[in-house]
Amino acid sequence: MKHILFLCSILFCFIHVNAQSFLSADKLWSTMKGPVSGCSSFFCSSYFTKMAGDTVVEGIHYTKVLSSEDQLMKKWITEGFIREDSNKKVFYRETIAKEECLLYNFGCKVGDTLQLYCACRESGFLVDSISTIAIDGIPCKSFYLTYLGLGIKTPEVWIEGIGSTAGILNGGASHCMIGDSEALLCYYEAGIKKYQSPLISNRCYLSPEIINSIDPEKAVSQFKVYPNPVSGELLIHPTQSVDEGFTLKLYSIKGELVKTECLDVGMNTYRLDIRTLKNGIYILHLISASGRYAEEVIIKE
Known about the structure:
Blueprint: H1 2-12, E1 27-34, E2 45-57, E3 60-68, E4 77-84, E5 89-94, E6 101-105, E7 113-114, E8 125-135, E9 138-147, E10 154-159, E11 163-164, E12 181-189, E13 192-196, H2 208-213, H3 216-221, E14 223-226, E15 233-238, E16 246-252, E17 257-263, E18 270-273, E19 280-288, E20 293-300
Antiparallel strand pairs: 1-2, 1-12, 2-3, 3-4, 4-5, 5-6, 7-8, 8-9, 9-10, 10-11, 12-13, 14-15, 15-18, 16-17, 16-19, 19-20
């Protein structure tokens, strides 16, 4: 079922794809991972990935790949090194690896067999088809591949410039491992969200605590937050009777707290003035006295 959802995610993409490099410092990915014992959802945690800073390893020039499991993205660690050649091949090298491996080949053709040694070393991937779909007039180039190992045919979906819907550093890897899997949750470019997985609605960060200790969907359903995108006032309207107060916290995409407000019990509609904020992505938290909270991604334009 999850592979069908991955394929369906292409129909929901609203990504501007062109000949841009896969490597860019203004890109940010959020990847879901799971399962973890006890989680009420298959995917129950996530981490962020970005590229920043050049380096040389054994005479080869790379861009550093950084990751963060911190929701506010204050702490980053170096996961590995990545580069892209003139043929649109993307090579990746983990910090502890002795050599690089082929992660993507965005220059592939239909019928090619790709040996993606970052993922499955036993067998290759067959490029079944490549298509460009227009969503609201925006082209979205997609690659459909099939893993040829394990005696089964498992689909793999890539989006040019973004990577695999199974997670950008794990294209195909989930099909070779037992008891673990990953999926692309969100993708940002220049601070603007360009992709949201249909597996999780309006959420770009997960943790076992969020999944197990609270009911985020129940908290989210208590409020209607609109308009989104927004340019002036953001309206927060309860969809049912609110019997406790809420604290509102608005964070920038860099994790900086930019606004804090209190929402009283029995409120009708709360108006949050964001006209003084810069354009970009913001994360809205609504935290109740009982500890439940909702998270919304807000786009300021």
